[in-house]
């Protein structure tokens, strides 16, 4: 059996028909009905479809015209992205109750590394069930999950028992699972690549596994190495938490364009005050101060200065950006100013993979 180290316990959580589910949750009249979020019978593109609509071949990225043709009873709903972000934030708070190693892929899906978790539960399968139940009870919509030793397999597994289900691929099941998998279901193998693989006689994981690294690199370039490894259960990409703040910023777009540096300093004073509040909230400081300038012709410019020490004080930030502002003359009137602080004093703790007897 190929080397599967490092073995991790990864959960991929994927919300079920997220945008459509939120709409049905907020409007009981839509429940149980075929709905499309986005698009219209006259055009536009569908952003999401309820499971009732999917039965008729309505799915994301098809035209509203096609959706109406496939499902005459389709109900078009205008997207509310602010609401989806709000619900997504509630779901992510639940994730962080279990682990700080959370990597959101979008508003409706995320990877969680629960190898070492806040609940002290050795079973990733039971944790996934608990997380899904918590989401349903607290938020009101369902989620599916995939559980395995790496992100690649967990991602594929989460699609198996949708909606409102989960699938665990245990360490000793990974190779057989991948060998029997249709090549079109491999994450990262799109429509064009699938067709190319078919032409090369690759229809399943076992077909892919029979090809040499040299053959795969010759036909698929750098991706060949990826395909060679993942079919052998080797995918060592870690769950990268977005909780590590890389930069903190504040900016302002003006109703009327600014032409005088004196007026710009007044605006930068207010922006620096907002930035200071955000820095205090995150309890961080930074060494690199960047001034962002967007001109009336929509061209953009940034000017930066790195200090030998960490700064977070408004007065000092304003002093630095004032210096940057006067570094050279404005080429046009200004419609937006922003300040960001990077090179922060946040330390990312190294995640140590502990080899344990895995209880999935």
Can you tell me about this structure?
The chain has 360 residues and is α+β, with helices and mostly antiparallel strands. The chain is 35% helix and 22% strand. It contains 13 helices and twelve strands. It has helices at residues 18-26, 51-54, 64-70, 81-95, 124-138, 151-157, 174-179, 191-199, 205-209, 213-220, 223-230, 261-282, 314-325; strands at residues 10-15, 35-37, 48-49, 75-77, 102-106, 109-113, 143-148, 166-168, 247-258, 286-295, 300-311, 334-344. The two termini are 19 Å apart. Mean pLDDT is 89; it is low at 1-5 and 347-358.
In N-to-C order, the SSE pattern is EHEEHHEHEEHEHEHHHHHEHEEHE
The shape, in one word, is: globular
Largest sheet: 5 strands, mixed
Helix content: 25-40%
Overview features:
360 residues, alpha+beta, 5-stranded mixed beta sheet, 4-stranded antiparallel beta sheet, 13 helices, 12 strands, globular, disordered C terminus
Please write out the topology:
Elements: E1 10-15, H1 18-26, E2 35-37, E3 48-49, H2 51-54, H3 64-70, E4 75-77, H4 81-95, E5 102-106, E6 109-113, H5 124-138, E7 143-148, H6 151-157, E8 166-168, H7 174-179, H8 191-199, H9 205-209, H10 213-220, H11 223-230, E9 247-258, H12 261-282, E10 286-295, E11 300-311, H13 314-325, E12 334-344
Parallel strand pairs: 2-4, 7-8
Antiparallel strand pairs: 1-6, 1-7, 2-3, 5-6, 9-12, 10-11, 10-12
Helix pairs in contact: 4-5, 10-11, 12-13
Structure described in brief:
The protein is of the alpha+beta class.
């Amino acid at each position: 059996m190929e080397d599967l180290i490092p073995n991790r316990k990864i959960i991929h959580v994927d919300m079920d028909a997220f945008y459509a589910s939120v709409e049905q949750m907020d409007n009981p009249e839509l429940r149980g009905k075929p709905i499309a979020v986005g698009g219209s019978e006259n055009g536009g593109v569908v952003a999401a479809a309820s499971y009732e609509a999917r039965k008729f071949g309505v799915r994301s990225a098809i035209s509203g015209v096609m959706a109406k043709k496939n499902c005459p009873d389709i109900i078009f709903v205008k997207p509310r992205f602010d609401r989806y972000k709000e619900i997504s934030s509630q779901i992510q708070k639940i994730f962080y109750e279990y682990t700080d190693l959370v990597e959101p892929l979008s508003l409706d899906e995320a990877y969680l590394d629960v190898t070492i978790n806040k609940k002290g539960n050795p079973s990733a399968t039971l944790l996934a069930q608990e997380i899904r139940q918590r989401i349903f009870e607290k938020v009101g919509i369902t989620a599916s999950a995939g559980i395995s030793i790496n992100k690649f397999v967990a991602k594929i597994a989460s699609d198996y028992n949708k909606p409102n289900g989960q699938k665990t691929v245990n360490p000793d099941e990974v190779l057989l699972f991948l060998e029997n998998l249709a090549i079109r279901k491999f994450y990262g193998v799109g429509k064009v690549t699938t067709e190319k693989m078919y032409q090369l006689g690759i229809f399943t994981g076992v077909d892919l596994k029979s090809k040499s690294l040299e053959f795969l690199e010759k036909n698929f370039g750098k991706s060949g190495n990826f395909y060679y490894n993942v079919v052998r259960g080797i995918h060592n990409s870690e769950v990268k938490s977005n909780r590590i703040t890389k930069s903190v910023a504040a900016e302002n777009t003006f109703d009327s364009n600014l032409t005088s540096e004196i007026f710009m300093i007044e605006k930068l004073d207010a922006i620096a005050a907002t930035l200071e509040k955000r820095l205090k909230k995150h309890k961080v400081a930074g060494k690199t101060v960047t001034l962002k300038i967007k001109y009336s012709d929509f061209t953009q410019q940034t000017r930066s200065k790195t200090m030998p020490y960490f700064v977070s004080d408004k007065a000092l930030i304003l002093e630095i950006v004032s210096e940057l502002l006067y570094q050279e003359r404005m080429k046009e009137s200004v419609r937006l100013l922003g300040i960001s602080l990077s090179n922060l004093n946040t330390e990312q703790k190294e995640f140590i993979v502990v080899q344990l007897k895995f209880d999935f």
